[in-house]
Amino acid sequence: MTILIIEAFILTALAVGAGVLVGILVKQWFGRRTVGSERLTEAMAAAEAAEASAAAGEAEVRPDLSPSVLEPTASMSAEVAPPPIVELVAAEGLTSPAAEVSAGLDRIAAADRVGERPPALPAPRASGADDLRRIKGIGPQNAARLNALGIYHLDQIAAWTPIETRWVGAYLAFPGRIEREDWVGQAKALLAGGQAEVEAS
Question: Helix or strand or coil: residue 9?
Answer without folding.
Answer: helix
